[in-house]
């Protein structure tokens, strides 16, 4: 082969491959299990394909699980640990009330332990499952850097690090900044609310007696308030509302349409209209003729979130059972 040709065509490609395959700032890399467990990602995907085809509503909770893992102690699978005699785990926090899908992770882990014992971490499974949940809900896919190790602790008190649905924009921004995430990551990842449901209790304070005068949150569309009040009585706690009504099983840009119509369920959704940067992102997605920008951004921001406080190398352990430390 002509050497000029090699330089012109193969060098740039090999540099690109090197860059995409090389360790990132956090020490994770795409294809970490390529040699040690070559089918790891396929095993995860095949099980997720089966699960989402029979229970599509698990996509939301499985995406949310990764967020709740990463924001508390980093993406170390601390969310998966059960309480013990001497410790109450993150799982028990009221904010985790409707998290589900732990059984899916356990099934996948069992399959991986069979194929390559002691190799694939529960933290990486959680990251891969979140990616596949989005993809299998007609959303984008992206490469997930892996190599995370599992932590040995899970403390209910630390779930305070999760942003509350009543946070103001400033509080949200600070909460994300604490995890090394930008305002752009905030507006992009909030788009995850295109999937899934919420219990009435997380937003009904906005419907009833918001300021103590028997009123609703003025930042909510008043017609939507009537609809939501029909769905959620003040005392309803476990009743569910779809966050993207009519398409809560498909990953799309509808979340931004909802927010722009002042129909975001949480104060934190409405808050994205208060800041110039997040507002313009919301409006751009509403006008966009396709989801290309959002889909690309979502993968980038999920990778960013997935870098939060990870354990690598010899830190932590590879749990045998995701619910208990070894
Ligand atoms: C910006 C701060 C955020 C706040 C305050 C927030 C708050 C909430 C709340 C209160 C619920 C309802 C939970 C329930 O009914 O128990 C929820 C659901 C959900 N959240 Fe978030 N969230 C935020 C960011 C995120 C992020 C970053 C993701 C993932 C990228 C995400 C994904 C989801 C999903 C998929 C659901 C639906 C879960 C289901 O169907 O059970 N959220 N969120
Ligand atoms: C963890 O807790 C769940 C729910 O209580 C239970 O079903 C599961 O068997 C527990 N796992 C282990 C390994 O103890
Ligand atoms: C609304 O809130 C105010 C102030 O907290 C309280 O005095 C009043 O009883 C509440 N009204 C209803 C209908 O709950
Ligand atoms: C899955 C899980 O453990 N959920 C818990 C979340 O927190 C509530 C309230 O403390 C518990 O009752 C749930 O069991």
UniProtKB/TrEMBL annotation:
CDD domains linked: secretory_peroxidase
Keyword annotations from UniProtKB, A to Z: Calcium, Disulfide bond, Glycoprotein, Heme, Hydrogen peroxide, Iron, Metal-binding, Oxidoreductase, Peroxidase, Secreted, Signal
SUPFAM superfamilies hit by this protein: Heme-dependent peroxidases
Superkingdom per UniProt: Eukaryota
Subcellular locations according to the entry: Secreted
Gene Ontology annotations of biological process type: hydrogen peroxide catabolic process; response to oxidative stress
Disulfides per UniProt: 37-116, 70-75, 122-322, 200-232
Example of a GO MF term: heme binding
Enzymatic reactions: 2 a phenolic donor + H2O2 = 2 a phenolic radical donor + 2 H2O
Plant heme peroxidase family profile domain location: 27-326
UniProt key word Protease: no
InterPro entries: Haem_peroxidase, Haem_peroxidase_sf, Peroxidase_pln, Peroxidases_AS, Peroxidases_heam-ligand_BS, Secretory_peroxidase
Family matches, as PROSITE patterns: PEROXIDASE_1, PEROXIDASE_2, PEROXIDASE_4
Keyword Cytoplasm (UniProt): no
Residues that, per the record, bind Ca(2+) 1: 69, 72, 74, 76, 78, 90
Annotated heme b binding sites: 193
Primary location group: secreted
List of residues binding Ca(2+) 2: 194, 244, 252
Active-site feature positions: 68
Annotated protein name in UniProt: Peroxidase
Organism listed in the record: Asparagus officinalis
Origin organism lineage: Eukaryota, Viridiplantae, Streptophyta, Embryophyta, Tracheophyta
């Amino acid at each position: 082969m002509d050497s000029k040709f090699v330089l012109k065509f193969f060098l740039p490609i090999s540099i690109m491959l090197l860059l995409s395959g090389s360790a990132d700032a956090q020490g994770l890399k795409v294809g970490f299990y390529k040699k040690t467990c070559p089918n790891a990602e396929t095993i995860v995907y095949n099980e997720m394909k089966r699960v989402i085809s029979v229970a599509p509503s698990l996509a939301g909770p499985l995406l949310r699980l990764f967020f709740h893992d990463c924001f508390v102690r980093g993406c170390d699978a601390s969310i998966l640990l059960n309480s013990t005699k001497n410790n109450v785990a993150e799982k028990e926090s009221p904010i985790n009330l409707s998290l589900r899908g732990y059984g899916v992770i356990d099934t996948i882990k069992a399959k991986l332990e069979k194929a390559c014992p002691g190799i694939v971490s529960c933290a990486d499974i959680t990251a891969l499952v979140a990616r596949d949940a989005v993809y299998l809900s007609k959303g984008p896919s992206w490469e997930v850097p892996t190599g995370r190790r599992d932590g040995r602790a899970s403390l209910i008190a630390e779930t305070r690090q999760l942003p509350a649905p009543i946070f103001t924009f400033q509080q949200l921004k600070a909460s994300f900044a604490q995890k090394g995430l930008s305002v752009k990551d905030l507006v992009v990842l909030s788009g995850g609310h295109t999937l899934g449901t919420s219990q009435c209790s997380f937003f009904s304070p906005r419907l009833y007696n918001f300021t103590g005068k028997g009123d609703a949150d003025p930042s909510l569309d008043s017609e939507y308030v009537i609809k939501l009040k029909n769905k959620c009585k003040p005392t309803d706690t476990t009743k569910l509302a779809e966050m993207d009504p009519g398409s809560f099983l498909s990953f799309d840009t509808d979340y931004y349409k909802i927010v722009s119509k002042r129909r975001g369920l949480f104060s934190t959704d409405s808050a994205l209209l208060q800041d110039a940067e997040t507002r313009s992102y919301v409006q751009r997605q509403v006008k966009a003729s396709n989801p290309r920008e959002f889909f690309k951004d979502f993968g980038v921001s999920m990778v960013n979130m997935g870098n939060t406080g990870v354990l690598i190398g010899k830190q932590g352990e590879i749990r045998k059972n995701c619910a208990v430390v070894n």
